[in-house]
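Milestone M4 deliverable, item 7.
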Amino acid sequence: MSARAATRQQNLLIGRDESWMQFNRRVLEEAQDTANPLLERVKFLAITASNLDEFVEIRVAGLLQRIEDGYTDLGPEGITPQQTLDTLTADMHSFMNEQYGCWNDQLLPALCDTGVRVLSWDEMDENARQAATTFYQKEVDPLLTPITIDPAHPFPRVLNKALCIALLLRRKRKSTAGPVLGVVTVPRALPRLVHLPSSTNDTHDFIFLHDLIEKHAAGMYRGYEILSKAAFRVTRNSNLYFQEEEARSMLESVRSELHNRRKGDAVRLEIEEGADPEIIDRLRVNFELDDTQIYRTDGPVNLSRLMNLYSDTPRPDLKYPPFVPHELRLNRKSADLFDELRHRDILLHHPFDSYDAVVGFIEAAAADPNVISIKQTLYRTSSDSPMFRALVDAAQSKEVTVVVELMARFDEASNIRWARDLEDAGVQVFHGIVGLKTHCKLALLVRRDPDGGIRRYAHLGTGNYNPVTARFYTDISLLTSDPAITAAVHSVFNYLTAHSESDDYAPLLVAPLTLAESFIRLIARETEHAKAGRKAHLIAKMNSLLEQSVIEALYAASQAGVKVDLIVRGICALRPGLKGVSENIQVRSLVGRFLEHSRIFYFANGGNEEFYCGSADWMPRNLFERCEVVFPVKDAQLCARLRNEILAAYLVDTVKTRLLRGDGGYVRASGTPVGKSLPAFSAQDFFMQIAEGKASADDIPKMPEVEKREPKAAAKKTAPRKKPMTAQLV
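Output delivered:
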């Protein structure tokens, strides 16, 4: 690639990792936002740390691998892996400083003011010290294994992200030997914050577990003088590489990789800021890290464990008020859910609509003797889920088939366990297609109905079959008996279990077979409508936007005059507002109480509107490396709800929405001219009010006509022909 082409490419695309860091900063802003309840702010801070952990062990580790393997090729944003890593490293150090600034300067003092205190040993009264000592002696000490590093005791195998304490030790007896290093691993089975007895009912006191262990460290190292000590944590490479052609089965391959993951190279060392330089140097040498990979923390190592402070503090006044979702109500004339679905489709917007309806769909199928078979995909769930139990029960009397995704990152071990449990119960378990993750969310029932006919019923969704996360993730569910949709779902299951490819999965869009080309075709259709002067508008809501071919199509649509509204929670490589390229594109990101997870796609189509929902983002992995399903919403009332209630609310949110600028930065919507012209409006709060019967679509603010963004007209046919976007982006 020429330098000029690389520069042009870099100008048109935002780097994936740069964009992800911007997303995590938006989460951090929620921790800094005093409008949020205090303990919810603590939770947001913990989420930023957890997010960063995964980013380091996957993305940063992957960059290090590419550099070590000698790759110097330019990425989509036009820079080398080493340049990307250098930029990221500086950004992560800066971000960590912001995290600890938030904890030390904002959250910790505010918590103390409200009676929630995280104390050091010296700040505790005698009663609290006695309770902490008793807890240490009974619960902690029996689990500790102190190690001293010497020729007879090599450095212990430190597990990925395990909190440890390093101690610089010197023998009390006269010895010519220099200081030695001691290492103690903090037990993962114990809470990171120990609840202490408080002097009043209005206070809740805690001490960090590692502080408690450090205070009693002398008892583990008798005969040694402790010169210094510091908590530390190592993050390791957690990338999974499958040699599928050599693996005897996908199950064995995943199990093997789980074992190998624990042996991953270290990619980051977090250690207390005041740690003795000799401790830092010994750890750095042992883990083979350079100075840029050492992150000194001005506070507790591993802020993600602050989630315990959120869950263990019984202060509902410092959390979001409880929310009760809307329960599905059947038509009074319907005999049951299946009778209802024979007359109408049902659209659910979780968590505002209760997920119990989806669980009930599977439970009803398991209990109904007229249901002949059940097929379902499972990506992330748990063996204590009512849905899991329903599948086990159903297997006793009917055909049950489950396609389990073993490679759901960081859930592999649990997925293996419950896949085995399903098999033991008589469920036919398949692991999908080798080389493709099964990410689609499908359930298909075959039922002998009262009229004697055999009919299919289906659930299609945007989120995992997990009733727990369904309370915190926004997702869309469609329950239907539509013959065309259910027949296509049946074909998808044949593809997953037998790799039986169909020529046509319509009306579904299926990756990796038809999804990418279908989306590009739909975008191109809007482009042609705009050129012909017909109504052309595209709204797409997703988690991430990275796929270059889709971005090219969106740029072409913008140039033709299509109004493009993108609602992208996380990574977005597209640059909006570039003159002559993306002036008609606006990108929003909403970070709030619930994790935005739904994928919704709207195409004006010259006035003949089309709506789709599904499991896929516009990313290479979703379009080409996974089995994904995007499904149409046909019913006019359900389409009206998607348009006039759900998407309309997202497009005028001024409280939790940030707008992406062309330079890759984000600005709060409230600070834009349109945002200033609108009242404060939170889409998620509005959806809760809808669920509680306190609001309707009529309550959504209308976009001011004067400030309303209108698409710029397409260039006249006499204008000089522009080079194709493909050439500009290559």
